[in-house]
Amino acid sequence: MATSAAALHPFVYLASQSPRRQELLQQLGVRHELLLPRPDEDAEALEAELPGERAHDYVVRVCQAKAVAAHARLTAGGHAHAPILVADTTVTIDDAILGKPVDADDAVAMLARLAGREHEVLTALAVVDADGTLLPAALSASRVRFAAVQADALRRYVASGEPFGKAGAYGVQGRAAEFIERIEGSYSGIMGLPLFETAALLRAARIDF
User: Fold this and answer.
1) Residue of 87 and 46 predicted with greater confidence
2) What positions are marked as the site Important for substrate specificity (predicted)?
3) Which residues are catalytic?
4) In this structure, what DSSP letter does residue 5 have?
């Protein structure tokens, strides 16, 4: 149990429906509650790219925008006040941002672009503390190299359904691991929640874990 002269918060709101991020928070021993978008919120609009935007700038901006939206959701919904944790992950190659695939053809095209090459996975973190202050964002950058992969193997992977809802059309913790030759950086960051940076931000927001 952490100790401090000032009161610590017993839990954090997680503004994400990703099961992987929930599992990673549990790995840290952080108690959390979900704070998800309401049906009337256009969450996808926050992920729209700006013309000429670099991937590093994009993922931080989107993460911070989601944090502001989550805080507005908190204050409007009568929830107990507590810090909010938000994360956003993107994949980039050739200065292009690869978000979530819109359909099977899009997923196959993304994976074919990654096959036999190295790409970067970026995960930004933002925390709104219990007083409503947006803390400085953190950014985890990792590099992943895919082996050359036959087109039929990519199609089988896409048919499994795993690529959907994932930036770059793959999950490092799932079946796509068979394509990955090498990783440099944070495995948990590639999953969507870099634990080193997350722990530091949560301590800054005075979460007890």
Assistant:
1) 87
2) 20, 89, 173
3) 88
4) S
Is residue 32 a contact partner of residue 40, using CB atoms and an 8 Å limit?
Answer: no
Assigned CATH for 12-204? 3.90.950.10
pLDDT at position 1, please?
37
DSSP code, position 80:
P
Residue boundaries of the structural domains of the chain: 12-204
**For 47, how many CA atoms within 13 A lie in the half-sphere containing its CB?**
15
Q: Report the distance separating Cα 19 and Cα 200, nearest Å.
A: 21
Within 8 A by CB and 6+ apart from 105, the residues are: none
Amino acid at 132: G
* 68-103 pLDDT per residue, tens: 999 999 998 778 889 999 999 999 999 999 999 999
Nearest alpha-carbon partner for 18 in 34, 42, 39: 34
The rounded distance, in Å, linking the Cα atoms of 117 and 90 is: 17
* 4 has pLDDT over 80: no
**Which residues partner with 128 through β-bridges?**
84, 134
